[in-house]
């Protein structure tokens, strides 16, 4: 159960990330409104996510090469060198763009140009901090110290929220929001480099070329993850107001909360799968993939039902402007569910050293996502952005499954356990539907409905799935025996 417990520790750290993220969104929405939240999210989309595509591709290569090598220090050094150059170049591009744009277009014409011009200097610092953070985290991950990467994520998110809250209370608005990640990223990066066992050393040319060779394909995976989470934000910034972007991002934040388990499982499994590939142990790779698929939708499947039943009530927690995003929330949870399964297949392709195949799957997703976002947002507004993400995620799932089947055989899908999750979600939906007939309005009642639904779902899951029940017991820090077992 060593791997399972590492997943639990990483998951617990993700809970810290999620709770602090929810708290930050709640505070921003309540104190500054949906408009400020939307402006901040556009800034994050530009500086923290879209411009991190090249450096994140290198970070993926660092993890891959370190996890399969006995000389990890040289690959840590190679990745650090490449990312340092990339980070400085990207930061310079932002500063130049923010300076030149006012002479070309009216910065107020779209939310995108407004953010780039107004907060260009801050965005450059975010890029540098994010480059350092991702490089440090990838190196620690390459040592298979997944628990430490979870701690780094938790420290980064908690410190970001703390800085933002302090500055908001001091009277700052969007400036407080963009300063938060600058501080948190540099602090968390420093922690990562301190705990790193294999200190980066001056690399030789072969190590640098090896990292770049893997990055040549892994950048598409980085682009795909950015497009999944942030393409809609960028497209919306050209077509709708910052207020609607803020509501959309609140809905997206709730959807991403439900994907915590899937993200933790993937983070834990990747270095293990990479090592198994080096040993050509494909039977174990199939086993770990099967395990990952069991837990990919364990929160997202009931979350989809819950979003339909009480999504509007949950969004109202953020403020009176937010319930209008209820339909968007349902579609986004569905998109996240499909992408969670797709990412398991794509991660295995990368782990077995076939980034070229993963590249093709991710390229198809990216092309469809871009075209669909622009077309559907133009025609249908913000709901079109959510539908575009849903459709492109379904395509990625199909291509990922077919590609993996062609390389290592048909993946063993755990149909029974996924079926149990569907049954549990249906029972949960029935319980919540009955409770809604008598539940009063207000935040306490909404929280009670969510807790009631979650409890009924977990009870059904533990009662019907021996596999999930056994895993849950095995992940506990003490030995537990059940009667009759």
Automatic annotation (TrEMBL):
Regions that span the bilayer: 12-36, 42-62, 74-104, 116-133, 178-196, 227-248, 292-310, 322-342, 380-408, 420-439, 445-465
Membrane topology qualifier: Multi-pass membrane protein
Pfam families hit by this protein: Polysacc_synt_3
Major subcellular location class: membrane
Protein name, as recorded: Polysaccharide biosynthesis protein
Cellular-component GO terms for this entry: plasma membrane
Keywords: Cell membrane, Membrane, Transmembrane, Transmembrane helix
Organism: Halocalculus aciditolerans
Cellular compartments annotated: Cell membrane
């Amino acid at each position: 159960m060593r791997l399972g417990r590492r997943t639990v520790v990483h998951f617990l750290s993700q809970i810290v990330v999620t709770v602090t993220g929810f708290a930050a969104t709640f505070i921003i929405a309540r104190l500054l409104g949906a408009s400020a939240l939307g402006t901040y999210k556009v800034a994050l989309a530009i500086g923290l996510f879209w411009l991190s595509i090249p450096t994140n591709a290198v970070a993926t290569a660092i993890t891959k090469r370190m996890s399969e090598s006995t000389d990890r220090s040289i690959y840590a050094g190679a990745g650090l060198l490449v990312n340092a150059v990339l980070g400085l170049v990207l930061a310079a591009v932002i500063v130049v763009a923010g300076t030149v744009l006012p002479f070309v277009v009216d910065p107020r014409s779209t939310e995108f140009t407004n953010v780039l011009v107004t907060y260009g200097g801050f965005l450059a610092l975010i890029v540098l901090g994010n480059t350092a953070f991702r490089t440090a985290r990838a190196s620690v991950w390459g040592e298979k110290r997944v628990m430490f990467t979870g701690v780094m994520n938790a420290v980064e998110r908690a410190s970001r929220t703390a800085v933002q809250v302090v500055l908001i209370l001091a009277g700052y608005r969007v400036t407080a929001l963009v300063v938060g990640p600058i501080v948190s990223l540099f602090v968390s990066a420093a922690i990562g480099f301190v705990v790193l066992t294999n200190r980066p050393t001056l690399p030789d040319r072969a190590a640098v070329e090896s990292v770049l060779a893997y990055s040549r394909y892994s950048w598409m995976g980085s682009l795909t993850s950015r497009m999944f989470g942030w393409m809609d934000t960028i497209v919306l910034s050209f077509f709708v107001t910052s207020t609607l972007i803020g509501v959309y991002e609140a809905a997206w934040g709730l959807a991403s909360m439900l994907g915590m388990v899937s993200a933790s499982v993937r983070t834990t499994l990747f270095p293990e799968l990479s090592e198994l590939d080096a040993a050509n142990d494909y039977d174990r790779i199939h086993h770990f993939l099967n395990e990952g698929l069991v837990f990919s939708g364990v929160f997202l499947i009931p979350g989809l039902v819950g979003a339909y039943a009480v999504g509007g009530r949950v969004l109202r927690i953020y403020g009176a402007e937010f319930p209008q995003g209820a339909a968007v929330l349902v579609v986004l949870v569905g998109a996240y569910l499909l992408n969670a399964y797709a990412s398991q297949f794509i991660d295995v392709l990368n782990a077995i050293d076939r980034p070229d195949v993963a590249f093709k799957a991710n390229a198809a997703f990216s092309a469809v996502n871009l075209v669909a976002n622009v077309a559907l947002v133009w025609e249908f507004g913000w709901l079109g952005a959510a539908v575009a993400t849903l459709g492109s995620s379904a395509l990625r799932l199909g291509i990922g499954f077919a590609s993996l089947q062609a390389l290592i055989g048909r993946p063993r899908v755990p149909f029974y356990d996924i079926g149990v999750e569907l049954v549990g979600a249906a029972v949960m939906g029935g319980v919540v539907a009955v409770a809604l007939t008598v539940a009063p309005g207000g935040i306490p009642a909404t929280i009670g409905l969510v807790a009631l639904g979650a409890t009924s779902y977990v009870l059904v899951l533990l009662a019907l799935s021996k596999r999930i029940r056994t895993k849950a017991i095995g992940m506990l820090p003490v030995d537990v025996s059940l009667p009759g077992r």
